């Protein structure tokens, strides 16, 4: 398989070989390998308590007022404050009553608690969670439920690596090459390490939306689990800190520097725009979004132009400034009497909010008016900063490993184990 080919590393001695010890151990004696494995297992045991678990606020799009939970093998329900076991049963219905969490009990009607903790009675079994709004999740680990002003807050407390697997599965197709999955898993874990405090004031670590990282149902897939396992504890760092681990679907030929896409950000040395190729075709040429074409009726652009501040029908529209990768920095619009300039960021956001995000797939495009329609020819999908996922897919199928891929998109960074961060002052 391509993932075991390390030849790219030999061209670049600065790339650390520590990333995937299993690969470089192929020619060593079995006894030596098992001693090394035992040593690493021992290190893992030492490191485990540091950041073993993560707390995710679930259903943040629409907080529920009721929750139905069940698990094959039953649920243990505990008082969230005292830890006293309240019941063991197959399923439980919880709802918000009088500012508390109410649970129905056979002989007492409803009993209410400050908070409730629910664990699978059979260790490791997933819990199914259903909300009246149609929300449904399968989660691993435990749930901690408390009453908020009007709703219930459900926090999923799970193993950090299970979280990484859940997010990775939501971000990348499991059928993609192993090293693309590994690179993605390292980015997901890096994001977690960098943003652990993001929702500290809300009572959990991260939310389950795009604001943090989307966490869907946690149904472990064998290929995803294996990629997560192979990269266990590994993150991308620079100067001892986890980096801003940005990625997108398809750059369309070249990535952009972060400050060109988000004007309020300071430039980051590892987020530089670069052509998505070494020689020949761009890696992400394989993407269905490498080039795209959209046409909409002219009067619909007029509606959008009003949101940008133009009053009459649009008579002229052209791309103004672009960055080195061709991403639009300004768009020029005119209604015949007034000419205005809209920032690329604003143009893109307003378009997406009003018309959905599937139409204008990226900020890399040409736009022109025809008789009765507006025609857009675009490149790529997503913001275009950091790792290009289709590019990573192509690189992995060409035999480049996860380290090669990450060093290509995040130059100057290092892959490191989370545990060793403990020794590095922030
Ligand atoms: Zn969030
Ligand atoms: Zn690309």
Distinctive features:
single chain, 426 residues, alpha+beta, 3 domains, eleven-stranded mixed sheet, 28% strand, disordered N terminus, disordered C terminus
Question: Can you tell me about this structure?
Answer:
By secondary structure, this protein is an alpha+beta fold. It has three domains: about 65-150, no CATH class; about 160-265 and about 385-415, no CATH class; about 290-380, no CATH class. It is about 25% helix and about 30% strand. The protein has helices spanning about 5-10, 20-25, 30-45, 160-170, 180-195, 220-230, 260, 300-310, 345-355, 390-395, 400-410; strands at about 55, 65-80, 85-95, 100-105, 110-115, 115-120, 125-130, 135-140, 140-145, 150-160, 205, 235-240, 240, 245-250, 290-295, 315-320, 330-335, 340-345, 365-370, 375-380, 385-390, 415. The strands form five sheets. Strands 1, 2, 3, 4, 5, 6, 7, 8, 9, 10 and 11 form an eleven-stranded mixed β-sheet that branches. Strands 13-12-22 form a three-stranded antiparallel β-sheet. Strands 15-20-19 form a three-stranded antiparallel β-sheet. The model is unreliable at about 1-30, about 40-50 and about 420-425 (pLDDT under 50). Bound molecules: zinc ion (2 copies). One zinc ion binds near residues 282, 283, 388 and 391.
């Amino acid at each position: 398989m391509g993932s075991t080919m390390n030849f790219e590393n030999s061209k670049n001695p600065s790339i650390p070989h520590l990333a995937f010890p299993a690969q470089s151990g192929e020619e060593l004696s079995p006894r030596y390998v098992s001693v090394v494995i035992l040593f690493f297992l021992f290190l893992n045991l030492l490191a485990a308590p540091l950041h073993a678990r993560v707390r995710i606020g679930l259903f943040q799009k629409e907080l529920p007022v009721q929750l139905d939970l069940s698990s094959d093998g039953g649920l243990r329900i505990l008082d969230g404050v005292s830890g006293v076991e309240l019941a063991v049963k197959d399923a439980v219905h919880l709802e918000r009553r009088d500012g508390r969490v109410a649970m129905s009990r056979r002989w007492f009607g409803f009993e209410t608690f400050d908070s409730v903790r629910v664990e699978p009675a059979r260790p490791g079994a997933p819990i199914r969670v259903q909300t009246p709004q149609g929300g449904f999740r399968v989660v691993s680990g435990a749930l901690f439920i408390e009453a908020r002003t009007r709703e219930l807050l459900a926090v999923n407390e799970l193993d950090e690596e299970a979280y990484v697997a859940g997010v990775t599965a939501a971000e990348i197709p499991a059928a993609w090459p192993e090293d693309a999955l590994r690179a993605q898993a390292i980015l997901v874990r890096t994001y977690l390490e960098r943003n652990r405090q993001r929702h500290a004031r809300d009572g959990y670590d991260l939310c389950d939306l795009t604001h943090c990282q989307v966490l869907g149902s946690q149904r472990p897939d064998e290929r995803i689990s294996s990629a997560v396992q192979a990269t266990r504890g590994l993150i991308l760092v620079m100067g001892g800190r986890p980096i801003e681990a940005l990625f997108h679907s398809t750059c369309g030929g070249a990535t952009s520097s972060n400050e060109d896409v988000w004007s309020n950000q300071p430039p980051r040395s590892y987020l530089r725009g670069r052509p998505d190729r070494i020689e020949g075709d761009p890696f992400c040429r394989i993407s269905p979004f490498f080039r795209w074409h959209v046409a909409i009726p002219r009067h619909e652009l007029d509606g959008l132009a009003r949101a940008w501040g133009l009053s009459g029908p649009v008579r002229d529209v052209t791309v103004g400034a672009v960055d080195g990768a061709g991403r639009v920095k300004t768009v020029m619009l005119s209604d015949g009497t007034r000419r205005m300039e809209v920032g690329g960021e604003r143009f893109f956001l307003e378009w997406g909010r009003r018309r959905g995000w599937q139409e204008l797939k990226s900020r890399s495009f040409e736009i022109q008016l025809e008789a009765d329609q507006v025609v857009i020819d675009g490149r790529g999908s997503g913001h275009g900063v950091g790792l290009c996922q289709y590019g990573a897919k192509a690189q992995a199928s060409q035999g480049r490993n996860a380290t090669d891929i990450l060093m290509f998109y995040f130059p100057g960074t290092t892959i490191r184990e989370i545990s060793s961060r403990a020794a590095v002052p922030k």
